[in-house]
Amino acid sequence: MQDYKLPAGLRDNFGPQATQKESVRHYLTGLFQRHHYTLIETSLLEYRDVFGPYELQAKSLYRILEADGQDLVLRPDLTLPIARFLATTNVSLPTSFAYVGEQFRRNRQLTGLYNQSTQAGIELVGFQSRRAELECLTVISELNRDLFNGRLLVELGQARLADLVLADLPASERQKEAIKAALFNKNVSDYEAAIIPLRVTLEIIKVLFP
Predict the structure, then answer these.
(1) 59-64 own/partner pairs: CB under 8 Å, 24+ apart
(2) Model pTM?
(3) Confidence check: pLDDT of 66 > 70
């Protein structure tokens, strides 16, 4: 069996490595369920057209030709399969999805040495924008505390996002400053002091923006 090797960019997980990966997957699933996300598992195989909006080069995809000539690919991302699911089913909106699954893409800039990776994420569809933004930040904050001991740095595309969200919250200025510290301050003690008002404001915003 020593002559049989995996394709380049793929690997087996064994022992402590496999145990650690399963532990992280279990934690993420539990985190998503605590926030009442609906878990979704999409197929590894999709029609290539599903990923048309990505404009991915053919050489970056793992392609499979079906017997009838249909062009299939191993999914290079999980977001568009969820969009495909929503477009082809009658799921009531608004709704929140969460997922943990494998993706396959040959792209050294994005995947490094390995072409198979695990993607986890949440998708909030049909919700008021600011509620969705605060929900995402809260999930990231909990993940940062539990898995990274507060060392994870989050880059926000909207420079005034925190101010816009906090402006709508019926919280004291002290609470708002604590929340901003949780989002932007790397000091762990400041983070721990701010996580309680951050959780409270999440419940408030769910009432304000159902």
Answers:
(1) 59/106, 60/105, 60/106, 60/107, 61/105, 61/106, 62/104, 62/105, 62/106, 62/115
(2) 0.75
(3) yes
